[in-house]
Amino acid sequence: MFKRAAAISVHLVRPRWGRKAGASLTRCLHQTLAMAKQLQARRLNGIDHNPWVEFVRLSKEYDVVNLGQGFPDFSPPDFAVQAFQQATSGDFMLNQYTMAFGYPPLTKILASFFGKLLGQELDPLKNVLVTVGAYGALFTAFQALVDEGDEVIIIEPAFDCYEPMTLMAGGRPVFVSLRPSPAPKGQLEYSNDWQLDPTELASKFTPRTKALVLNTPNNPLGKVFSKMELELVADLCQQHDVLCISDEVYQWLVYDGHQHISIASLPGMWERTLTIGSAGKSFSATGWKVGWVMGPDNIMKHLRTVHQNSVFHCPTQAQAAVAQCFEREQQNFGQPSSYFLQLPKAMQLNRDHMIRSLQSVGLKPLVPQGSYFLIADISDFKTKMPNLPGAEDEPYDRRFAKWMIKNKGLVAIPVSIFFSQPHQKDFDHYIRFCFVKDEATLQAMDERLRKWKRELQP
Questions:
Q1: What pTM does this model have?
Q2: Which CATH class is domain 51-74+339-456?
Q3: 3-class DSSP state for residue 215?
Q4: Each residue's pLDDT tens digit, 313-345
Q5: 133-145 and 297-308 helices cross at what angle (nearest 10)?
Q6: If DSSP codes are grouped into helix, strand and coil, which group holds residue 434?
Q7: CA nearest 348: which of 333, 369, 364, 334?
Q8: Domain 78-332 maps to which CATH number in 3.40.640.10, 1.10.1040.50, 3.40.50.720, 3.40.50.2000?
Q9: pLDDT digits (tens, 9 = 90+) for 373-391
Q10: Could you count the other beta carbons within 10 Å of the beta carbon of residue 307?
């Protein structure tokens, strides 16, 4: 029908405008018809909106102290900087390709270092894959293991990439929420007050469940899962023959004597677990984008297939620098000179500083056990100023975060974005702050909060 219409149109205009006009109209109609086709793949439907874009844009438009995004604004340790400088200026062959699945010195030290922690004899060629950051490890895992119609259990609040990665692989995300237990009046709440309901968690497992995503220490909550909680997850995974994708990028950032436990170290779990880590989080160098995933060869071989047919290879020089960093840490592990002891000790002081400061204006921080982050309860503000500008259906924490950027010069991230759509309204009274910041940034935060406090006084 469209071809016939185009032909008639050309026939009608040709006597008046000549062949040139007719040809132009034909091209126009052809382009219109061609552009009517859907350009994007169906797997992108519904995942194009990213709330981070809006908050990053706002933080650039206003004079703010950025406590929203999770990156250190201080230098990596000297030994890490020196390792990177050596990698870029030393052996010229580090400018070339290395092994597709990881620079051999790096896969070797990762196998040695984490093998002891996991209680496994790791083969660098079979049990370790180096990826473009932990993000790359997650994407590779979902693409390799999740099929059309598979269900993936996601414990929320959850890092916001788990859901779209599940959807892009053709899977169906199934959500189960950690729920808070109120603290006694006048006392601070803690991230470990947020617990899974064992019955609810068990109800999420079905014959279609392929994997469960675990994040400990958790972003945004800062919760470190206890051994008892991990055993609950492990028992259900084994009972239902489900894989566990364990995102452990903050494993060295634990506070107050809490202990990070890898679920792969529990009996019966190595065989069904992928353990994901990040050099960026480990050595305060998030821009290096070096991550890894470890697991049994019968699972890892499928990740290698995705890797070799996508990125194929990660930058050699960054891998060489990370290898040197881990070699140093292995020599100093458990000693005061270990960065994996020094960093959490320093960041616990930052955390405590931020908690005290936020309380001064009526925010109610929850004390995190781990990670870069803490969340603060804004319920009192929701009661006092419920009608902040924003769309009618926009969760309150998003409107509050925008108001705080524009009026108080402080950037935080609304916690509702870490929840699935049906649960966002239930958790729209929290905002997330990053305390892994330089002392000067914390001082700038204090200055903004002192001004805010003065404005609160009658």
A1: 0.91
A2: alpha beta
A3: strand
A4: 999 999 999 999 999 999 999 999 999 999 999
A5: 110
A6: strand
A7: 369
A8: 3.40.640.10
A9: 999 999 999 999 999 998 8
A10: 27
